[in-house]
Design a protein that fits this description.
- The protein is built from five helices and two strands; from the N terminus they run E-H-H-H-H-E-H.
- By secondary structure, the chain is mostly helical.
- A two-stranded antiparallel ribbon has the order 1-2.
């Protein structure tokens, strides 16, 4: 399992809040925002501070995702990207 913060990015767009504004208002480092972007682990206290700032529940900003499902989704994304650029793709078996 892996933590996905896609819900956080959607919520920021809906509320017209930039990542820089979130970072400065919550008091988190640029490195922490970078971890969010890369899907790396972030300390729970940071997630709770973000939830407090956005006045929401932790399930509103992140979710547990099966790594196999995520890998398949990434494979499909890359397959579509390479096909659109004229590259040959290897199909999944």
């Amino acid at each position: 399992m892996k933590i996905s913060c896609k819900k956080l990015w959607v919520m920021l767009i809906q509320r017209d809040i930039t990542k820089v504004q979130l970072r400065t208002d919550v008091g988190i480092s640029a490195g922490t925002v970078s971890k969010f972007n890369k899907g790396k682990e972030v300390v729970l206290s940071v997630l709770l501070r973000i939830c407090d700032y956005l006045n929401c529940d932790i399930g509103d900003v992140c979710e547990a995702v099966c790594v196999k499902r995520l890998s398949f989704v990434l494979y499909i994304f890359y397959a579509i990207t390479y096909r659109s650029k004229g590259h040959l793709c290897v199909s999944m078996r």
